[in-house]
Design brief:
Elements: E1 2-5, H1 8-34, H2 44-68, E2 70-75, E3 79-84, E4 91-94, E5 103-106, E6 109-113
Antiparallel strand pairs: 1-2, 2-3, 3-4, 5-6
Helix pairs in contact: 1-2
Length: about 110
């Protein structure tokens, strides 16, 4: 049986990009509202739309990554039970859907399982 849990500090570290995107959006909103009003507004609408699309795509990318990042798992040789950062409920995967389970190693030693 193989089981593991991602440390809390690592879970919070993977949530940091969303905080950065939120802060970036807040600063952009503040910048648009404190800019002098005598500037031309010809391209500000286009810039606003581009920033909204950029922000939504960044948030979507972070959520896509969280759906694939396993927070806790249990492998008993037949089934793989896990939950991700995006979904707190446990999910079950059959052995036929997996290719191989092995130890994931880095420079400092074992990092987890792949």
């Amino acid at each position: 049986m193989i089981a593991g849990t991602m440390p809390k500090w690592q879970q919070y570290g993977h949530r940091a990009p969303l905080v950065i995107v939120a802060l970036f959006g807040a600063f952009m909103w503040w910048g648009f509202h404190t800019a002098p009003s005598h500037q031309s507004h010809g391209r500000s609408g286009f810039a606003t739309i581009c920033l909204i699309v950029l922000g939504l795509s960044l948030i979507g990318g972070v959520l896509w990554f969280w759906k694939r990042l396993i927070k806790e798992f249990n492998y008993d040789g037949r089934t793989f039970t896990f939950n991700t950062l995006a979904r707190p409920e446990m999910q079950v995967q059959d052995l036929s859907a997996m290719e191989e389970v092995g130890q994931w190693k880095g420079r400092g030693g074992p990092l987890g399982f792949a």
